[in-house]
Fold:
Amino acid sequence: MFWLKKFVSPFLFPLQIALILGVAGLFLSWSRRWRRTGQALLTLSVLVLLLSANKWVSGRLIAPLESRFPAIADFQPGDALPAPLAACQYVVVLGSGHQDTDDRPALTRLCPAARARLTEAVRLLRLLPGARLIVSGPADLDHGGIAHAQVLADAAVSLGVDRARIRMIDDGRDTEQEAARLHEMLGTVPFALITSAWHLPRAEALCNAQGLHALPCPVDYLYCRPLRWRRQDFTWDVESLGRSTAAVHEYVGLLWMRLRRKG
Structure:
């Protein structure tokens, strides 16, 4: 089931859909019999790209995901913390990605999303001196190499976290498996759950399905609603295509999760 999901899901992303429609339309447009069908597919391909790469459309897609949970406010060490945060005994960073190379420090090897998640974890650990850090992520499924959890742990140490405070989950291949491993490790112990804001609704639901006591801590926002709309907020760029792809990925994941009654 895991490998089927990994194989099928990329073909549901906007760019792949547009390319499949475009290539099919191009071939069919060469045939007299199927020319109109080919032209329709080419038109649909362009529309998919125009919509998914548009700033306004991509913002409307991802904003409902990123606004589900509030961010953890700024506090200074020693400040009185909100009860849900003060109760957290662990800070959990869900896996993202890294580069498999030995010529760069661990923090630099992390992808931007992983750095954002880990930075938030270090911030919360300073507010929660008694809490421990759990980092998650396996090795690359295709090429092997060092586990992502190990790179996160090394980067956390470079940021001043005592290695004795760190535990790793290096065999969770997706968020559902990560939630299952957390259940085995923590049971009902409260913890801060850190992941990208757009990914947090699905991650939190999967943790709830496991009976976990997770405090959602969103980071790595991909969209910020402008205070005042301008003409350029309705144009197109590659970042918007990335936002749309992330949003579609999460909506498909939420649908798949609910069809299986996992959250």
